[in-house]
C-alpha cells in the first residue's frame, strides 16, 4: 500500500453500514485496517455484518432519529475507542410518492433521518475531532440532488440539504484540520435498486440510456470514492461533491 494511504489504527463510524452501499464501505475500510463501528437499527443485519467483517468491525444498534441520545452514543464510542477519525453519514430513507400526496409527517420523517440526524451526529463527532485537529467526514448524497427525479420530493430536499451542509461544514471545519466531502452515487446495483428497476423496465431503460457508460455501478465503486476521501490521498480535498454515476448526471 502507498505510504500516504496507510490507515493504521484509524477509527471510523459508518451509519447504515449493515447493507447496501454502507456494507461495501465498511468492507473497504476493514480490508484496509480501519477499525469500523457500524450504527444501524436492524440488529439481525448488524450481527450478520459483524460476523462477516470480523474483529475490526463492531456494531451498535441505535435509532439515529432519537437526536437527544446522540451525544451519549458518541461519548460511549470515545470512551471505548479513544478517538474518532472518520465519519461516514450513509444512513438514509427514501419514499416514492406523488408530490401532492406527501403528508407533512412523511416529509418531516425523511428530513429528520436524512438531515437532522446527520447534523446532530456530525456536530457531536466534530467536538471529538476538534482537539485532535484532524478528521474526515464523508456525507452520502444522491443523483436526486443533481437533477429532478419524479415522486421523491422529500428525499430530493434532504439530499440537496446534505450537499449544502457539506460545503458549509467544510468552510467552518477545514481550518481546524477536519475535511468534509460528499459522494453522490448514481444508479448503483443493490438489492433495493434492482427490485425497483426490474419492476419498471421503462425507468430502467431511461436510466441506462442517459448514463454514458451504459451500465449500473456496483457498491464497491462508491466505497472506493469514500475511501479516497477518508485517507491522506485526499488531504488537500474538502467541500467537494463527487458524482459516482457513470456520467449519469451529465448524460443526455
From TrEMBL:
What enzyme class is recorded for this protein?
Answer: oxidoreductase
- Matches recorded under Gene3D superfamilies: NAD(P)-binding Rossmann-like Domain
Give the matching CDD domains. Answer: SDR_c (cd05233)
Query: Which domain of life, per UniProt?
Result: Bacteria
Alphabetized InterPro entries for the sequence: NAD(P)-bd_dom_sf, Sc_DH/Rdtase_CS, SDR_fam
Question: GO MF terms on file?
Answer: oxidoreductase activity
- Signal peptide residues are none
Q: What is its EC number?
A: 1.1.1.-
SUPFAM superfamilies in the cross-refs: NAD(P)-binding Rossmann-fold domains
Sorted alphabetically, the keyword list is: Oxidoreductase
This protein's record includes keyword Oxidoreductase: yes
Instruction: Name the protein family.
Output: Belongs to the short-chain dehydrogenases/reductases (SDR) family.
- The name under which this protein is listed is SDR family NAD(P)-dependent oxidoreductase
The scientific name of the source species is Pontibacter silvestris
